[in-house]
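sorry for the late reply, my laptop died twice this morning and i had to redo everyting from scratch. anyway the thing you sent over, i finally got around to it. pasting the sequence first so we're on the same page, its 430 residues, then the predicted structure underneath. double check i copied it right bc i was rushing
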Amino acid sequence: MKFISISEAMKKGSGKIAVRGWVHRERGSNKMKFIVLRDVSDIIQCVVSREKFEKQWEEIDKIQIEYSLEIEGTIKEDKRAPTGYEISVDKLKVIGESDEFPIQKDLNEELLGDRRHLWLRSRKMTAILKIRSTVMQSFRDYFREQGFYEFQSPIIIPGGAEEGPTMFELDYFGKKMYLAQTWQLYAEAAMYGLDKIYGIGPTFRAEKSKTSRHLTEFWMAEMEVAWADLEKIMDYAEGMTKYILKKVLDKHKKELEILGRDFKKLEPTLKKKFPRVTYDEALKLLKEKKNMKVEWGKDLRTIEEEKFMELYDVPVFVTHYPKEAMAFYKPKDPKNPKTALCFDMLGPEASGELIGGSERDTNIDELKKALKAKGEKLEDYSYYFDIHSYGAVPHAGFGLGPERLIKWVCGLDSIKDAIGFPRTMTRMKP
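ok and here's the structure:
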C-alpha cells in the first residue's frame, strides 16, 4: 500500500490505510498493545492485538518510545482515542529501534537543553518550528509582494553597526574581524542599486545577558528602502506584522492549541491600527498610568517596556528616542536634535522590542562624529562613508527579531524555545 500521512489517514476516516512514523507513547498488556504513532502531521492511536501477531509478539512487546514503525491497518473513528481516530493494525514493521529514550516527564530546562537534539521531536517543539517556518517565509512573501529584492550580506565584517563591546571577534588570517550584528551597513550600499531590499540571516551579539529575551546567535529579518522616511517604514512594519500573523493564524490554529496559546489574544493585532507614540509621550504615560518615573535620556529597560505595554493589546511604535542613546547611523530629528528619527515596535503581553528601525544618517561629518564618540576606528567604516559620497538619498530600514516575534505569537516563556538550537552565554551545545 502507498503510505500517507496520519492527517491524511484521519481525513479519509475509514478503510484500509498505511502510515509510518515514531512511537509517541505506548502502553498495554500481554494481549493488547496501544501505540500512539506520530509523524510531522499529527498523532494517532494504533491497536495491536496479540491474536493477530502471535509470531511477532516478542518483537512488538519490546517496542518503546521513539521506535520507528511502518503500519498497515483499518482506520475508524473512536472518540476515546487521543485524536478521535484509531487504527486496528494488520501489519507492523519495525524500522528503527529505540532503547530508553532519554527524555521523560519533569526534566528541567537545563537537562532538556542538553538533549535538545532529541527534544526537537516533541510535539511542542514541532509545533513551534512549523510556526517559525511560516514566519520566515511570510516575511519573504510580504516584501516580495511589495516589490522588494532579496539581498545577502557578509557574515564576517571589519566593523560593527551596534555597540563595540557586543561584537564577537575573529582571527581572520592574522587580522581582527567580527561576526555581523546586522546586514544594515552593506544593505545600504546595495540599496543604492536595488532601491527596495530585504534579507534574512544569522546575527551575533556578545551580550552578557541571561534573560528570557536574549540569545548570542539569532536571526534577523531586515529591510532597507530608498526615498523612505520614518512614517513610511512604520507603515511597512505594521503591514508586515499583520501579514505574518494572518498567515500563522490561517495555517497553525492546531499548533497554537498544542502550545496552549489563546490565539484570540492575537486577533486585535489584525483588526486595530498600531499606536504611534513618542519617547516623551511614553515617559509621560509611564508616570501618569504606572507611577514610574524614567529619567529623560535613558533607553527604556525591560521592566519599563512591559509596564508601558500593559496599556495596550496590540504592538506599539515608540519613536524619537534620545540621540545619545542610539546607534551612530540614526540621524538627529531636525525639529528636536536631542532625539533621533527612529522607532522600536514593542509587543504586547510582555514581549518587549520586536522591531527596531530608523531613517539613516547620510551626513558623513555627523557619522564620523558619532563613531568617534563611541570609540570606533573610522578606517573600518571607509566603505560606509563612500556609499554616501555619491548621490546620497533619504532612506530608512528596520530589523525584525523573528525569535522574539515567535515567542510572542506562540506565548512562550523564553526566546530559547523559538529557535532549534539556542546559543546563550552558558549554552554552546549541542
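The two ends are 38 Å apart (CA to CA).
thats about all i looked at so far, will dig more tmrw
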